[in-house]
Amino acid sequence: MSALVCSLLLMLPTAAMEHRQTPEIPTASALEEPSTSGEVEIPRGEKEIGPPVPLWAVEKTRGLQKKRRERNKKKKKKKKGGGGSVSGPRIRLIFDGDKTNVCMEARSISNDADVYTARCSNSSKQQFKKEGSKIKIGSYCLGYSGMWLKIKSCSSSSTSWSWSAPGQMKAKGECATQRHEPGFNERCKLQDCKRAQRHKTDKWDDS
Fold first, then answer.
1. Is the pTM above the cut of 0.70?
2. Residue ranges with strand state E in the chain
3. Fewest beta carbons less than 10 Å away: which of 27, 61, 159, 205?
């Protein structure tokens, strides 16, 4: 009798272990918190598509772009070509292979006067004329002082120029130029020819 009781007692832990439930391991999706905002999440890598742009807005944008292009064309046209009724000898800037409406102009026809760019005109202050190695204006000549172009007495040693094709105007191995793009009221100077070439302002026409 006692042996039977003992065997029953030994079987009890085994039966309890068989009826124990294995805990369920939660999945990754179960661990994600539910969205409380009510918004639909956009998958990574996809762009949210906004509301369609009204046709009137598209047409307005195109119209503004067209006006901007026309304004830019007018600006370029002002600087390029078109001397109109301007006549007589002058020194006109060549930019991108085209004659511009930008010319050298002396501040005054007097000794040591500065030289700037200006809109080509019939002004006597633009009447430069090439004579051999000299470029004359009135009774004076175009020369230089340091890097800056100046009006000088023709007897000065700083009034000798050489012209090399196509249109480079040189003194002491440097080219006559203005600052960068064709523009008015820019002081004319001498600069390293390669640098002036990069800005496309190293060529002039003397006709």
1. no
2. 92-95, 98-106, 115-119, 129-131, 134-137, 140-145, 148-152, 162-164, 168-171, 174-177, 189-191, 203-205
3. 27
Give the whole-angstrom CA distance, residue 52 versus residue 180. 45
Give the whole-angstrom CA distance, residue 102 versus residue 151: 19
Residues ≥6 apart with Cβ < 8 Å to 64: none
Q: What is the pLDDT of residues 133-182, one digit of tens each?
A: 999 999 999 999 999 999 999 999 999 999 887 789 999 999 999 877 78
Q: Which residues contact 187 (CB under 8 A, 6 or more apart)?
A: 114, 115, 116, 148, 149, 178, 179
Distance (Å, whole) CA 159 – CA 149: 10
Taking the CA atoms of 196, 201, 203 and 204 in sequence, report the sign of the dihedral they define.
Answer: negative
